[in-house]
Each structure stands twice: as C-alpha cells, then as structure tokens.
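Table S2 (text version). Query chain:
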Amino acid sequence: MSQRLVAAAGSRAVAGPLAVLWRCGLGPRGGRTFGVPGGGGGGRSRLRGDAIHVRRRLGGRTQQSALQIRLASVSQWLCSKPPKEEEKKHRNATAHKTAHKRNNLTRTSEPKDAGPGADGGKRGGKRDDFAWWKRMQKGKVPWDDKDLRSLAVLGAGVAAGFLYFYFRDSGKEITWKHFVQYYLARGLVDRLEVVNKQFVRVIPAPGTSLEKYAWFSIGSVDTFERNLETAQWELGIEPPNQTAVVYTTESDGTFLRSLVPTLLLIGIFLYAMRRGPMGAGRGGRGGGLFGIGETIAKIIKDDIGVRFADVAGCEEAKLEIMEFVNFLKNPKQYQDLGAKIPKGALLTGPPGTGKTLLAKATAGEAGVPFITVNGSEFLEMFVGVGPARVRDMFAMARKNAPCILFVDEIDAIGRKRGRGQFGAQSEQENTLNQLLVEMDGFNSTTNVVVLAGTNRPDVLDPALMRPGRFDRQIYIGPPDIKGRSSIFRVHLRPLKLDESLSKDALAKKLAALTPGFTGSGADISNVCNEAALIAARHLNPSVGEKHFEQAIERVIGGLEKKTQVLQPGEKMTVAYHEAGHAVVGWFLEHADPLLKVSIVPRGKGLGYAQCLPREQYLYTREQLFDRMCAMLGGRVAEQLFFGRVTTGAQDDLRKVTQSAYAQEVQQPWGVIDGEVRRLIGAAHARPLDLLTRCREQVDKVGRRLLEKEVLERADMVELLGPRPFAEKITYEELVEGTGGLEEDTA
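Corresponding structure-token output:
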C-alpha cells in the first residue's frame, strides 16, 4: 500500500493531498470524505469512497484499522484523474513558471569598482537551497518547489512504512499449554502457520473467535512438530482430521529498521558531497563526488556592469585590448580581410594594477558571456581532475561562443615543466598540457578569446606564451600622475564631497600627494574609502580635504598610535633625526622635495619625513648620491647633536647600503676586474670616438626624432646617406643560396 501511495504521489505534479492525509474523517455511512483545494462546490471538492466501508464484524467478522482506510482513501484519490479545472490551472502555472525562469536568470551584478586593482563584486553564486523553508515560515506552502515535493513524497513513504509496521495487528500471544487446551482440544483451529521458523500463527476457524489470530513462539521446527503430533495423538484426533501446518516467510520490519541508520549515513554523505566545498559554486551544473571532473568556472551571461569608463590609469592597455572587443562585436569586418583575431592575451603587471578589472570591462563592452576561473581551482587531490576540468571549461566556452574566458593567476597551472617528478608536479603538467591542446590544437576554439592574468610571467612555460596561444602580452604597470588623477576621479564619484571642493581639482591634488602609490588603484580606492570612514567617524556631513590627507597618512605610515607615549629623551632624538632628513633634502639639488615631517608614531615608525619623489625612470650618479646623502641626514644629525647613534637609524643605513651595492655591482659605475674593465673600456672608447667625429649627424637624427617620433629606413638614408657596406634587405636577397624548395600552403 505504501509503495502504491508513493508511486501515485510521484506521478502527480501536485503533492498537496499528502498534507490532508491525517485530516480525513469518516463520512456518513462509513464512507471516506476529505477536501481538495481548487475544486468545485465553494472551492472544496468532496470525494466519497463509497467502495470502502468500515465494517466491524463482531462474532466472526474482521475489523479494518483506521490507518488502512486512510491510506486506501487517499491512494484512490491520487490515482484518479484530476478535475479539468485543476489540470488546466496546473498547466498554466507550469508554463508561467517556465517562462519566469527563462526571463529571470540569476543575475550576478558587478559593482562599478574602478581603477586598476578593483576586483569588482561577486563571481557568480549558489542559489538558496532552503528557499522553500523560508516561504513556509511565512505561512505559505510552496508546492511548486521541487525539493519540497521530493521531501514530502519521501517523508510520506517513510511514515507510511513505519506506521504500517508499528500499528499493524500483531495478534494475541498465547502459550503452548493454552493453545493445546483451548484451541486444539476444542477444535477451533483452522490451520497453523509457521512463520520464519520462529513462531506459529494460530488461525481460528471462521466464526469461532473474536481475535484475528493468535501466536506462540517455538524453539525449533522439529521440536514443534513432535510436540504437535504428540498432543493430537493424546487428544485422539485422527490423522485425516489433524490440523494443517503451513510454512511461510514474512518480513517483520526488523531488517528494514536495521537499514535505516545505514541509509541515513549514506544520505548525509551524499548530501554533504553535493552541497559541500567540492560541489559548491558550479552554477547549478551538478557537483559533489560524481561531478568532480566538471569545470568550476563561473559564467556571467547578464550585464556585467563594468565598462572601460570604470577603468582608469591604463589607457595604453585599454587601447590594446579594444581590438578584441571590436572583433567580438564585428567579426565580419576582420574575416572579410582574411584577418584572424589573436586567440589570447596575457595581462601582466604588479599585483592590483587592474588585470581582472580590465578583463571584466572587456566582456562588458563586448556584450558577450564572461567565463572566469582561478588557476588554483584546477588542482585537486584526485588525479585527472585538472585536465578534465580544462576540457569541460573549454566545452562550456565553445557552447557559449562568442565569449571571453578569463583565467586568473594562471601561473598556478602554467609553470615551466620538467622541474620535478612528484605526483603534484605531474598532475600540474598534465593540466598544462591539456590547456595547451585546447588553446591551439586540433580542436582549437573559435570566437573564444582567452585572457589570463598573472604577476609572475617569468615562471610561465614558453609553450604557453608563444604566438597562437597568448599572442599578445599586455603589461599593466603602476599608474603615473595622470593615471592616478583619473583613478581618483573615478573613485570620488560615489563620495559626498564638501561643496567647496571640485572633483577635478581634488583629484589632481591627491594624485600629486601620492607618488609612492606605485602599487595600483587599489591603494587609491583604499584612500577614498578611509577618507569616508574618517568623516563618518567624526560625524561630518560630507568628506573634506583634511579627511583625505589623514587617509593618505594612514595608508602610507600606518595607524596613528596616540597611546604610545615617548620619553622626553626619545622624543628629542626622533625630532632631531627627522630634522636632519629635512634640512639635507632641502639644500641638495637632486634630493626629493620635502612634503611633510612628523614625529607622531605611526605603524612601526616613531616618525617620518614624507618626500615627493620625481617620477622618472633613469637616474644619474649625482642623483643617486644626493638621495643617499638625504637618507643619511638623520644619522648624521644624531651624531652631531648627541654624540651617539641610536637604533632608529638602522633602516636608513640599510637603504643606503643597498643603493651603494647596486651602484657598484649592478650599475656601470663600479670598479670591475681588470680584464673585464679593459674590454668594456675599449668598447666604450670606440663609440665615443665615432660619435665625436659624427657629432653633426647625431644632432640631425635627434632633431628628426623629436619632430616625427618614428624614423624609417628611408629617413635614415636621407639623413646619413647610403650605408658604406654591402647588405641584404629584400626577400630575394635574403633567401639567396637557401635552395629552391618551396612549401605548398595553398
């Protein structure tokens, strides 16, 4: 009966009748009646099970239990055809639900975090698995939820089986003596059933007993047969009239009850494997132990919300990557010319310079799906998971083409091969090999642009960086002063500034105050956020200029330690130390301009002198020497005024030592060994003599470069005349003497 009930419930879209299972009552004349929502007759339809009656048969008639009647009644209703109104309403609800799901996909909104280094918002997400429970807490029964229907059917089946075994009529237990004297001697036995060789069920003759049956336990079947034969012989019962014995095997529920703990453990394990870390974040594509080889990449099909206008400080990189956007928008323009878009681009640069944000902006501008994955997510404890996930990821990309596939921190799987034979290294190499094949192999991708980000391009495998895989390497370096100004303008948008402040003027001033922010726009974003927090901490209605200055000090120097009180002697030493830095830097030409001096403890330092370093890439020996002098100013001031040197100057001495070693060992000003110096000196003397004689030509080339910025070979011939040596320039001259074999590529 329980199996029939569960099967009937599972074949219907509405599992509501299960909720009214225990509300059923006895109708007139013993018929079963219960209400069904949505039917006729005032919103309630009455079902009368006229074929099922409660018959209490006294004096020979058996009694049906109330539980069996309820199960039979509801089973009859579930197996019957639903009313036409209910069926039509269910079809409409199903169609509406399907359209709603199709038009309202899970949206992954990306906040418009701007500036290099901003990472955006969430990278996909998992749906709420217990939404039906929240709806039930609000007083609604969400029968449209698949999980709830499954739980309801499972719960009903388990409850029905449990109640069947728990409440079924177990009969009356008697002893052997009572059986012989009351049943066997009086001829009230119809037959005996030996069940499972453990007990005997006594079936009374029809109309002779009120009980359905009685039973007694036995030790063994052989002993029972001998005792029964002896008892019937003593009672004088002839063999033709002796009681029939039937042997049966039945289940008393013990085996099923013993399986319940095992099934519960298996269910909990499967649920944990599905919902746990190995099954999370798969975008509804399955997971757990059986889906471990599936990709864990997140696909964002909706509007990403990040545009190139939200990325500042890397204009050259944006112009370089704009070609990918144009191809994805207008591929025919390139295909008509026979051009092929580069298959991939490698975004390199220091941490936080905007590699991930630039990839998001590329997908947002192109209006195509954006698939993102982290390089470390390919490596698991199981062998073969990495290559399987790479295959599945590219299969997803081809299915959603045209699209952009972004692999962040690709150095996790793209390191150079052949550095070891350990298991983890071998698995990483297999994953890399699969990635190489997918990017440029027999099954190469079409209309799938692969972008990757890393700050360690030096450790990547050469096969990964060759043309045909990552055709372009786009370096995103630290922003200059113009880039910092642009980033500040972007991050100042959401802030409520003081009315007297202009965003453009404030952005330029802050850019000039932050020359040491070579990291990225992440530092600039942190400054703007800290300024807003400081303003809120002081209960100010808007963010002022002083709040930004305090935020810059906090980001550069660290948190101000107001509770760290210095002794008078220590405070004087710190003051003269910082004064020495300031005075030396003030009177030296090539030293960095002084911006601020403070003896307020911040972070690990007891004071600091903030300078405004020049943004230049090439330094002369004089400039480096003046900077060394400025760094030693504090140590010299301590020695002059106090006659001693404290440990506070050790950081300055370390920096000076590093600069001196760099100049003498790495730069071309150190004293080098004799033979090396002689060779380098000879190599230096020859171009010196040549350029001395050709000084006028050097001046012409320099002036023309300042005018045109790019000079071709024809320009050089015009300025310097033909080269006085024989040379090969054209294709025919270069291939002369290499043979006549031509490769057929038609």
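Notes on Table S2: The longest strand covers residues 189-195. DSSP finds 26 helices and 17 strands in the chain.
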